[in-house]
Design a protein that fits this description.
7 helices; 8-stranded antiparallel β-sheet; elongated; 7-stranded antiparallel β-sheet; about 375 residues; about 25% helix; disordered C terminus; alpha+beta; single chain
Length: about 375
C-alpha cells in the first residue's frame, strides 16, 4: 500500500514538473516552409486563394476523412473563411488581405492557439516558389501537445511540407490535364435569362464569376424563379490587347420576368443563333487555348463571324458539380453569319380554258403544282 502511495506521489510530482516545464517554455513561434510548384504563378495563387480547394491539398484534411468542414458564404479573397472539426481538434481560418498573384495574409485559430498565416508566390525556374509561414503564440494545451510531437516547428512544419507536396501534385495533374475539341457548326438554342453586366479585366473573370453567379442564383431562389440550365457568360467585347472585356454573367430561367426598377440584376432573352462550337474539358485557365483553336477553325474554313457579340461560354460541368478541375467542361459558341435560305417566288398558276364537250360530264381542269415558299 505504501509503495502505491509512493508511486502515486512520484507520478503527481512528475506531472507537476512537466506542467511547470511546459508552462515556462517559450510560447512564441515562427514556422516557415517553401516549395517549387510546377505551375504558373497565377494558377497557384488562384487555387490557394479559394478555401474550397484546400480539401485537395491540406494534409490535416486529406488524412482525416471524418473531418467536418463548414464554409462561409465567401470562400475566395478578403473575408473568406472556413472552420473544421477533426480528430486532432477544431480550428478556423480567415483571409484578411490579398495581393493578386503575389501574397495572401490570414488569421488562424487551432485548438486555442492563434497565429497569423502568410503565403508568398514568386516566379522562379521550374514554376512558382510558394512560401508558407505562420507566426503565433501557443496555448498551454498546444505546448503540451507539441512537446510530445517533436516541438512546434516539427509539428506544423510536417503539415506544411506534406500539404505543399500535395499542392504540387494536385496542380500538376488537375490544372494541366485538359483537352480542346472543335465540334464545328451548330445551332445554339435561345433562352430567357437574368444577368449582371460589367467591364472587367480578363484575368479577373473567373474570380468575379463565382461571386456574381452565386448572387444571381440566390436571387432566383429567394424569388422562386425556376432555372433553365447552366450559368453562362456572354462576352460583348473581348480586348486581348488591353486585357479588358465587357461581359454579362447570365443564369438561364424558364420564363420571362420583369425585374424591379433600379435593380442591378436585369432580365433579357437570348435569341437562337448559328455558331461554331468548341468544348474545353479541364480547368478554365485553358480557355485561351480553346478560343485560339476556334478562331483557327473559323479562319481555315473561311467562316464569316457575326459580330452581334464576341462569344458565349456555358459552364456545363463546373466546381459546383465536381471539384476536380480536370473534369470540368466549358462549351464555347462563336456566333457566325446565318446562311441565307433561298426562297422560290410564288407564281400564280395559269389555268387554261377548256372547250365545252358534248358529253354531259363536267369538264376536268388539270392544275399545275404550286412552288414552295
Amino acid at each position: 500500500m505504501r509503495i502505491l502511495k509512493y508511486l502515486f506521489l512520484l507520478l503527481l510530482l512528475s506531472f507537476v514538473a512537466l506542467s511547470i516545464f511546459v508552462a515556462t517554455q517559450k510560447g512564441d513561434f515562427t514556422v516557415e516552409r517553401s516549395q517549387i510548384i510546377n505551375s504558373p504563378k497565377s494558377n497557384v495563387f488562384s487555387f490557394v486563394n479559394d478555401f474550397r480547394n484546400w480539401e485537395d491539398f491540406g494534409s490535416w484534411i486529406t488524412e482525416d476523412p471524418q473531418m467536418k468542414i463548414n464554409y462561409s458564404t465567401v470562400t475566395i479573397g478578403p473575408g473568406a473563411s472556413y472552420s473544421w472539426e477533426g480528430k486532432d481538434g477544431t480550428g478556423n481560418i480567415k483571409t484578411l488581405f490579398v495581393k493578386e498573384n503575389d501574397s495572401i495574409s490570414q488569421k488562424m485559430n487551432f485548438g486555442g492557439t492563434e497565429s497569423l498565416v502568410f503565403w508568398k508566390f514568386k516566379d522562379t525556374v521550374g514554376g512558382t516558389k510558394v512560401t508558407w509561414k505562420t507566426i503565433g503564440k501557443m496555448s498551454f494545451s498546444m505546448k503540451v501537445y507539441t512537446a510530445f510531437n517533436g516541438g512546434i516547428d516539427h509539428f506544423i512544419g510536417k503539415i506544411y511540407e506534406k500539404s505543399l507536396a500535395s499542392l504540387d501534385k494536385t496542380l500538376d495533374f488537375e490544372l494541366n490535364t485538359y483537352t480542346v475539341k472543335v465540334n464545328g457548326l451548330t445551332k445554339k438554342s435561345g433562352t430567357f435569362y437574368l444577368k449582371q453586366t460589367f467591364t472587367s479585366k480578363i484575368s479577373s473573370v473567373t474570380k468575379n464569376s463565382r461571386v456574381v453567379f452565386y448572387k444571381i442564383i440566390t436571387f432566383c431562389k429567394q424569388n422562386n424563379i425556376e432555372l433553365n440550365g447552366k450559368p453562362f457568360i456572354l462576352y460583348h467585347t473581348y480586348d486581348l490587347a488591353n486585357g479588358l472585356t465587357k461581359l454579362s454573367f447570365c443564369v438561364p430561367i424558364k420564363s420571362q420576368i420583369l425585374t424591379s426598377s433600379g435593380s442591378d440584376i436585369l432580365a433579357d432573352k437570348l435569341e437562337p443563333f448559328d455558331a461554331v462550337k468548341t468544348t474545353l474539358t479541364g480547368d478554365y485557365s485553358h480557355s485561351r487555348k480553346a478560343l485560339d483553336k476556334t478562331k483557327e477553325y473559323i479562319n481555315a474554313n473561311r467562316i464569316a463571324v457575326y459580330p452581334v457579340f464576341s462569344h458565349l461560354e456555358i459552364f456545363t460541368k463546373s466546381r459546383s458539380q465536381i471539384k476536380n478541375p480536370s473534369k470540368w467542361v466549358t462549351e464555347i459558341y462563336y456566333p457566325i453569319t446565318p446562311k441565307a435560305i433561298p426562297v422560290n417566288s410564288y407564281v400564280t398558276p395559269v389555268i387554261k380554258k377548256v372547250e365545252a364537250v358534248k358529253t354531259p360530264e363536267p369538264a376536268i381542269i388539270k392544275e399545275e403544282e404550286q412552288s414552295e415558299f
